[in-house]
Amino acid sequence: MTTKKIIVMKFGGTSVADPEKIQRAAERAISERRKGFGVVVVVSAPGDMTDELIALAERITPRPDDRELDQLIATGEQVGIALFAMACRARGAAAISLTGPQAGIDAIGDASRAQIRRIRARVILKHLAAGRIVAVAGFQGLAPNGDTITLGRGGSDLTAVALAAFLKTGRCEIFSDVKGVYTADPRIVHDARKLSRISFEEMLELAGSGAQVMQARSMEVAERFGIEIHVRSAFRPTAGTLIVAKEKLMLEKAFVSSLALDKSEVRLTIVGVPDQPGVAARVLTALAAADIPVDLIIQSAPSHRGVNDMSFMTPKAFAAKAKKTLEGVAKQLRAERVDLNEQVAKISAIGTGFRHNPKIAATMFAALAAHKINIHMISASDLRVSCVVDLGQGESALKALHKAYGLAKGKR
To answer: Where among 177, 205, 240 does a domain terminate?
Structure first.
């Protein structure tokens, strides 16, 4: 069987949340196998199993060891692949489940955020040649020391796209509980419109802005290897959304394609930092050494006292660690204090051509002002304009901008 006839399908946790959904997913895979495809299925942990395992660990200790936590949460995907293979076999289709290490996925890096180094697909190809559906555990790989190590939140997306890249399939099918990629979260904005296509670049920005459709790292791999991604509903026969190279969209004008609301970050501010060369470097070097991700860095203009404030966003999971790190740096710099604000949300407009069209940002600011929504921080690029607002106003901001940019159903 040649790699041209291989299809990679990925089923998210909601798509395999119970026996009935697992059986439905298995039927989809079997249908593709009957068409003559070699089928590789990446399966996530069923339902909320990963969160439940993390909660279980935290009942044992509030700070679980990173290695042992990886050993624990990797079992969620193993449950998923075993049940999926059972469902296929119960329907008369040959199938086998493989963990990440068994599938030849080698990973390097720290526990809970490892990177895929390579894929030794000999075992996968052997089973495909024998006519079996291969169910691979997403989210995990084999560390150099022999441990099972996980790839971070959304890591099953990364597993699926990496397999599609290595097997040269050209496309990866992503099945979830949504019909595709929308102009905004349809659970908040009820007239949000499903997009038929979106570019890799826009989807990467959308994922990085807090949208839960695809993992940002998986989009980087997809763009690098030219893997088209088809995001579809696991439960409804819809066309879904194709994520493709920008040139295939053939659009040159500036426009907003979608919006994202991220409630998962906090804002940290070092107040009263001396306005001196090298200060920003010292702050960010300390954060990098502590492996703390940073987003939306803003530094105020110096006051008459020769000091300024430096603010940035980071995921809530890093809030305590980031504050402790910054307090150490602040003491060295003789800054006044470090403030932590957990009641913030980031709203982002994603599209193309923003840099040469100030109307995009102006529309955002005017719409938020009209709804009396105060802006705390602003960041812009050619593909994205982001604002930080009060957490309680996040959903109102999303709805206001969706209307202001004319993204509702029937508008385009």
So the answer is: 177
Which CATH number belongs to the domain containing residue 309 in this structure? 3.30.2130.10
Q: Are 160 and 252 within one domain?
A: no
Q: Which residues lie across from 229 on neighbouring strands?
A: 172, 243
Helices within 8-117 (DSSP H only): 19-34, 49-60, 66-90
Task: Write down the pTM of the prediction.
Answer: 0.84
Pull the structure tokens for residue 254.
């500036």
Give the per-residue pLDDT at 304. Answer: 66
DSSP string, 173-229: EEEESSSS-BSS-TTT-TT--B-SEEEHHHHHHHHHTT-SSS-HHHHHHHHHHT-EE
pLDDT of residue 65: 94
pLDDT for 208 equals 81
* Residues 346 and 313: beta-carbon distance below 8 Å: yes
* Position 198 in a domain: no
In a domain, 203, yes or no: no
In a domain, 228, yes or no: no
Do 334 and 326 form a contact (C-beta atoms < 8 A)?
no
**Structurally, how many domains does the chain consist of?**
2
Q: How far apart are CA 227 and CA 167, in angstroms?
A: 11
> 353 Cβ partners below 8 Å, 6+ apart?
252, 253, 254, 255, 382
Q: Which domain holds residue 291?
A: 248-412
**Same domain for 264 and 166:** no
Inter-residue contact 156 to 12 (CB < 8 Å): yes
The pLDDT assigned to 412 comes to: 53
Give the C-alpha separation, 4 to 273, whole Å.
Answer: 58
- What's 69's domain CATH number? 3.40.1160.10
Q: What is the pLDDT of residue 116?
A: 96
Q: Do both 102 and 18 map to the same domain?
A: yes
Half-sphere exposure of 253 (CA within 13 A, CB side): 4
**Which pLDDT does position 250 carry in this prediction?**
46
| The 228-233 sheet, strands edge to edge | 95-98, 133-137, 38-43, 6-11, 171-176, 228-233, 241-244, 197-199
Residues of the chain where predicted confidence (pLDDT) is lower than 50: 1-3, 250-252
Task: Look at residue 211 and tell me if it is in a domain.
Answer: no
Phi-psi region of 374 (alpha: psi -120 to 50; beta: other; left: phi over 0): beta
Which tokens hold the place of 233?
């509903």
Q: How does strand 115-119 pair with strand 6-11?
A: unpaired
Helical spans, DSSP H, in 290-390: 319-333, 359-370
